[in-house]
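From the methods appendix. Each design record in this collection lists the tokenized structure first, followed by the designed amino acid sequence. Records were kept in a plain field format so they could be parsed without special tools. The example shown here is representative of the layout used throughout.

RECORD:
FOLD TOKENS (465 positions):
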């Protein structure tokens, strides 16, 4: 399988360096709220990469961390009046539920930052010994970027006319900072009053690790000094991944990741997703509008990972139609397949082009197109040929993580939250509580559901239909 590599800017063959297992790491979620569909674009495509490798017969070792201590988790746990652990556990569970609904394979190892504080402290000590770290007056520790000549290669800092020489005395203590503020970054943050109870002892005093450090420490723990592939959304190229390379290559001495897989962002209606604009969607938001998670998954894999994906609610309707067409085609093929045939073929039949798209830089839209072309060709087949084609189709669907519904796709699932809202409104109406009844009907309408009253019962219709 070939995949574009951000560092060399070329497409390269993916092969396990140890000759047997493809070992890769994905920066995981910051567990301070529900993940949005942008996050899921990244996680779903990482999942398709893993599934494609496995379908091709390669064993994988998938490590994805949980960021459960950083500026945001601490800030929001305090605002919620909860301990950091209680707060991040709740959002980790929510993340797992969403992942399962979306058909994401759980990573083989899912380490949490809080559970790896000693490893992070040990890495800072190594960086001290090697002359890459220094302490500031307040007990914080920084990485000195001018001590690492390779700094900036991944994100091509030289092409952005940012000069390492100008970084003297520039320091950043926050976990995230802008592209143009090239600076020494924090490895250990001295305890501040606003951190509350969230601090740990260290040789430099009480404090907590900086965000960039956790991935380097956990990668060393579970994948060693060098491994096959590292991945995250494109926003992580700088500074996060640049800083990971600096920490790891200085501390471990090796060549960190052999391959860098970065995912372009998901946009909504052509722009950035943001809570304040009101266009930030979670899986629950889309379920409340009557959309299945498979429709969401279909949309997320509908664009090539190197191009931004423009998400619209209309694209979910398109996905519903495409999945219905796909289901119909698969059923027809199954009906014509010779039953009881033992398939020894491992080929893809008319779906070979779809498979080739996947293994050629993970071209998921190409694979989806190839499936429909394959179905048209397969409509001529019968017996053993049809059975072989069906087996090929199933393997591609598994690689894409698409499961087709058993029931007709025309049936729209009404989300539980909508059902509950409708029940409450019906009770209000029976109690002649007209004001509440009207408010709840408007609430349902705002969420895309039309409630029509009969004499003794009501119906719910998706307003989009
Ligand atoms: P976070 O939970 O913010 O740490 O992000 C988890 C993952 O989602 C990271 O790999 C991010 O780069 C990625 N990500 C964040 N926003 C988007 C977006 N709009 N589109 C695609 N990936 C994103
Ligand atoms: Zn990371």
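DESIGN:
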């Amino acid at each position: 399988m070939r995949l574009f590599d951000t560092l060399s800017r070329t497409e390269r063959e993916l092969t396990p360096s140890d000759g047997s297992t493809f070992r890769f790491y994905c920066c995981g979620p910051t567990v301070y709220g529900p993940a949005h569909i942008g996050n899921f674009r990244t996680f779903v495509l990482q999942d398709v990469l893993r599934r494609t490798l496995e379908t091709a017969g390669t064993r994988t070792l998938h490590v994805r961390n949980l960021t459960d201590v950083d500026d945001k988790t601490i800030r929001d746990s305090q605002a919620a009046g909860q301990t950091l652990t209680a707060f991040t556990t709740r959002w980790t569970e929510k993340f797992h539920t969403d992942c399962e609904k979306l058909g994401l394979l759980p990573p083989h190892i899912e380490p949490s930052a809080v559970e790896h504080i000693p490893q992070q402290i040990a890495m800072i000590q190594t960086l001290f010994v090697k002359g890459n770290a220094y302490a500031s007056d307040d007990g914080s520790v920084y990485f000195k970027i001018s001590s690492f000549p390779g700094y900036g290669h991944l994100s091509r800092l030289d092409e952005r006319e940012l000069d390492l020489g100008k970084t003297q005395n520039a320091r950043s203590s926050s976990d995230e900072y802008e592209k143009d503020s090239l600076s020494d970054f924090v490895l250990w943050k001295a305890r501040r009053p606003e951190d509350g109870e969230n601090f740990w002892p260290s040789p430099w005093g009480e404090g907590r690790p900086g965000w960039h450090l956790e991935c380097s420490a956990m990668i060393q723990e579970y994948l060693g000094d060098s491994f096959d592939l590292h991945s995250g959304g494109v926003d992580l190229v700088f500074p996060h991944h640049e800083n990971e390379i600096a920490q790891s290559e200085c501390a471990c001495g090796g060549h960190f990741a052999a391959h860098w897989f970065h995912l372009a962002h998901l946009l909504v209606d052509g722009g950035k997703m943001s809570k304040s604009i009101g266009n930030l969607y979670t899986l629950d938001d889309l379920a409340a509008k009557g959309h299945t998670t498979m429709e969401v998954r279909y949309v997320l894999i509908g664009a090539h990972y190197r191009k931004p994906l423009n998400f619209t609610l209309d694209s979910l309707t398109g996905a519903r139609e495409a999945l219905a067409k796909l289901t119909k085609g698969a059923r027809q093929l199954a009906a014509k397949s010779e039953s009881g045939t033992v398939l020894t073929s491992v080929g893809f039949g008319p779906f070979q082009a779809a498979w080739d798209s996947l293994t050629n830089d993970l071209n998921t839209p190409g694979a989806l197109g190839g499936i429909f072309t394959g179905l048209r060709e397969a409509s001529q087949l019968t017996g053993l040929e049809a059975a072989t084609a069906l087996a090929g189709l199933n393997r591609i669907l598994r690689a894409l993580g698409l499961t087709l519904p058993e029931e007709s796709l025309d049936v729209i699932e009404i989300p539980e939250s909508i059902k509950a809202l409708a029940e409450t409104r019906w009770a209000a109406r029976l109690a002649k509580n007209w004001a509440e009844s009207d408010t709840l009907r408007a609430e349902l309408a705002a969420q895309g559901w039309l409630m029509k009253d009969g004499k003794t019962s009501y119906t719910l219709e998706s307003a989009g239909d």
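APPENDIX NOTE: Residues 2-263 form a domain with the Rossmann fold fold (CATH 3.40.50.620).
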